[in-house]
Structure formats: C-alpha cells, structure tokens
Design goal:
Blueprint: E1 15-26, E2 29-41, E3 47-70, H1 71-74, E4 90-92, E5 100-104, H2 107-113, H3 116-124, E6 128-141, H4 146-162, H5 172-178
Helix pairs in contact: 3-4
Length: 180
C-alpha cells in the first residue's frame, strides 16, 4: 500500500488486509482488482474495519494527486483528504444526490478534469477514485462480485477517456514531480 502514498482513501490508517487479487487488462489498461478490509480509527471502539472492492489502473503518465468520491465512502475513514497538500475536500455539484467531495494538489488541473460529466459518472457508479502518480485507484463499498469490480474498472477507464488530451502532454519534469 505504500506504493499508493500514506494511508489514504480507501486504505486504512491502522492496517489493510487484501485478498482475492486478480490482475489483467481492462480497456487496454493494466489493472489489479481486489477486496480490501481497511482498518481505521473507530468511534466507540479503538478501531473499525471498512470493506471495499478496489480496482487500480496503471496510467500512461503521472498526474497531479486528485480525488473525487461519493461523500459517504470517505466519511468514516478518519483520514485527512488525500492528497494532504490539497487542503479540505470541497463539495462538488452542490445540492445534488449523492453528495460528492473532491480535492487536488493542483486546483487548475482539478477544474479541468472534474467536469459535470466526470462527477456524474462517479456518482452514478457510487464510487470513489483518486489519482496517485501513474495510477488511478477506484473503490466501491463492501466486497462485490468480480463482475461488479470489473464494471468499476470500466467506468474508471471511461473517466480516463474523458480527460482532455492536454493532461497527457504535460512537461515531463512536471509529470515526474507528481510521481511518488
């Protein structure tokens, strides 16, 4: 999990248990699928466990750390929004259901990619996703059947397809800065 930064959504701050790992390709992207039990700070109990279904896609280049999620998927994780340098997560498409939150280390980049269509695709899939270096990490609540996790990876690939071509033609030195 260190490959995906400090404990960050959907990973727990007190440990992670991964099982049922599958690797392959989804719509041309190298993909890893798995079930995750994320252990984090609890309320009445010292720790709590959240179950997620996770897909990780390898991207053609590093992008600024950015996250968008259905608010209920990240509310109980007791972690700061990722990326830490992004500040407080903000509500996107206010007044719509489900509530959506987003943050990014590069607000201009976030404004460019977090179009209403991308946010709506994320909301409709009831998922969260974040960019970390040259990976896109997506998650759904609970352990889902693999057909559903493959569907998550397909939605993630569609989101990547919505990104403007200009995000991939960034200065190589700037892209290197976004690798962790």
């Amino acid at each position: 999990m260190k490959a995906f930064g400090p404990p960050a959504h959907p990973f727990g701050t007190r440990g992670n248990h991964i099982k049922h790992v599958l690797e392959g390709r989804v719509r041309g992207y190298e993909t890893t699928l798995f079930h995750l039990a994320a252990v984090h700070e609890g309320g009445r109990h010292p720790s709590d466990v959240s179950m997620y279904s996770v897909a990780v896609l390898t991207l053609p280049g590093a992008l600024p750390a950015t996250e968008v999620s259905v608010a209920s998927l990240v509310r109980w994780l007791s972690t700061d929004p990722l990326p830490p340098r992004a500040g407080t997560a903000v509500h996107v498409l206010p007044g719509r259901k489900p509530r959506m939150v987003a943050c990014s280390v590069d607000p201009d980049f976030a404004e460019l990619i977090l179009t209403e269509r991308v946010v709506r695709m994320t909301a409709d899939a009831k998922m969260g996703w974040r960019l970390h270096g040259d990976h896109m990490i997506g998650w759904l609540k609970d352990h889902k059947p693999y057909q559903r996790i493959i569907g998550l990876a397909e939605v993630m690939a569609e989101v990547i397809g919505e990104l403007p071509a200009s995000v991939w033609s960034r200065d190589p030195a700037e892209q290197e800065r976004y690798r962790s």
